[in-house]
Amino acid sequence: MVRGLVELCSLAQGESVLIHSAASPEGIAAIQIARMVGAKVWKFPLVFQTANANWFLQIFATAATEEQKALLETKNGIPRSHIFSSSDDSFVHGILQSTNARGVDVVVNILSDDLFYESWKCIAEGGSMLDFSQRDSTSHGKPDRGLLGGNRGLYSFDIVTLLQQKPSMAQRSVEHHLPIFP
């Protein structure tokens, strides 16, 4: 997850991230890494045009149930206004409204099928998606190259396969990133 967000997607302060299924173990890990990078959790709506809003990273999330949304709000400090449903495509409208139609810099995707494609509508130009859904690797489908317009990137990530194929890369990544965790 660290390699995907920090190295591949270059998540940094001053950016925004949408974490799908944020109450899942992968989602909680993504929240923690976003905080490590410099995310700040706010209890009120933010306006991107403010002069001093460049130093933090803004977290948005999706969850399937009200219990998961409550967990994200109470245990992880994500404002309810930044939590959307992962059960349908209503998150697209919420993200675009919350970001003044800009979209987010990074989407951490665990959703599949149609919601995978809907997530692309949430990515700002120059942004990227870190995909854990294994959608194409299991269905042998081909990603739609038209989705990558606007200088957007797609990174499909499978840690188990990475450990099997390139164990030295995984070890270097752990050794590099472990010291930055308190």
Keywords:
alpha/beta, Rossmann fold, 6-stranded parallel β-sheet, 8 helices, 6 strands, globular
How would you describe this structure to a colleague?
This protein has a six-stranded parallel sheet, with helices on both faces. It contains eight helices and six strands. The chain has a single domain, classed as 3-Layer(aba) Sandwich (Rossmann fold), CATH 3.40.50.720. Helix 7 (159-165) crosses helix 8. It is α/β, with parallel strands linked by helices and 182 residues long. Strand 1 (16-19), helix 2 and strand 2 (58-63) form a beta-alpha-beta unit. Residues 40-54 have low confidence and may be disordered. The chain starts with a helix and ends in a 5-residue tail after the last helix.
Strand content: 15-25%
What strand line-up does the widest sheet have? Answer: 3-2-1-4-5-6
Mean pLDDT: 80
Total discrete domains: 1
Give the name of the CATH architecture. 3-Layer(aba) Sandwich
Report a brief summary of the structure.
It contains 8 helices and 6 strands; from the N terminus they run αβαβαβαβαβαβαα.
List the helices and strands and how they pair.
Layout: H1 2-8, E1 16-19, H2 25-37, E2 58-63, H3 66-74, E3 83-85, H4 90-98, E4 104-109, H5 114-120, E5 123-131, H6 135-139, E6 153-156, H7 159-165, H8 167-177
Parallel strand pairs: 1-2, 1-4, 2-3, 4-5, 5-6
Helix pairs in contact: 7-8
